[in-house]
Amino acid sequence: MMRRPAKTLLPAFIAAIALMSQACQSPSGKKETTADSASVKTAALPDSSKFVKTVNGKQTRLYVLTNSKGAKAAITNYGGRIVSLLVPDKDGALKDVVLGYDSVGTYQKPKEPFFGAIIGRYGNRIARGKFTLNGKKYQLDINDGVNTLHGGFKGFYAQVWDAKQLNNNTLELSFTSPDGEGGYPGNLKVKVTYTLQNDNALKIDYTATTDKPTIVNLTNHAYFNLNGAGTETILNDLLQIKADQFTPVDTTLIPTGQLKDVKGTPFDFTSLKPIGQDINKQDEQLKNGKGYDHNFVLNKHDLNTSVATVKSPVTGIVMDIYTEEPGLQFYSGNFLTGKEKDGKGGAAYGYRSAMCLETQHFPDSPNQLSFPGTTLNPGQTYHTTTIYKFSVSK
To answer: 42-55 burial, b if ≥16 CB within 10 A, otherwise e?
Structure first.
């Protein structure tokens, strides 16, 4: 017959249990995160075999760049898209900080939101798809309500680029857009080079030439979430944009032509603040954009001066942006829905679960004479560089 513990031993037994419980907790009373917990799990790249496909008679592939610090970037030549970007967090684990898909086929679905793509010939919107150049009128594809968006139906996001991996950390992509494609004049030869530098910076160099006067505005449409792709929100991340003005838009997101001061408005990101701090305020511009979807007029800068900074309080990851472009389109993921669980690893990319920070010339510049020009003539070379540099907050 089993004997009960003597009553005199009960207090000591209870005290021992209490001490064991305290040992498993931090001073705050919360359980400590162990090194093998999900919070420090290193992200993985997609299966490269899922990116081998023939599209428009050309072969697509997935190319992997690495650097000496262990960071990785996976890029497909379908649309020149950044599929994954793995950078270290405060615990030293790699986090995938861009949204994307596990196969090239998913990128071809209707109304795909340009995840990670090279955007051209003209990034952002052109009003009614019309512009006049040297007295000649041009009509472009209308693919965004009444406007042209990101180059139209055959924009660079949907093209198979010729790819050449130069070394472990450099990929060169090239494409020739024929005269008249999407309504744009001139045979435009484009080269985009991705370099994953040893300081954990992803450098993007854009170059283009033409045989007829045309317009060019190239950018990249990466959706960033420094907490890790697939986590639910970016609203608690801290953002700074070094811009004293932005370009207000109408209800179709075409700039009005004005430059408006950010001071005293929800668009003041001149110092770090949570993205969600003012996003739901009663403001006509926020209503028009369904949140932030606006071009910021960058203060004077060069490639040695960051124009924007994002910080994640969760992972400690910091992203600094450097560019030669005059504008930055900040989009707060207002049209993501999370209805389709087809993101990497079956993730659902929900409402405001990522942000775009697209370096660019201003939207609708061909129709706005006061904006920086976007005309490229024969004999000229379009060249611009943007850098997304990652570090960890101290």
So the answer is: ebebbeeeebebeb
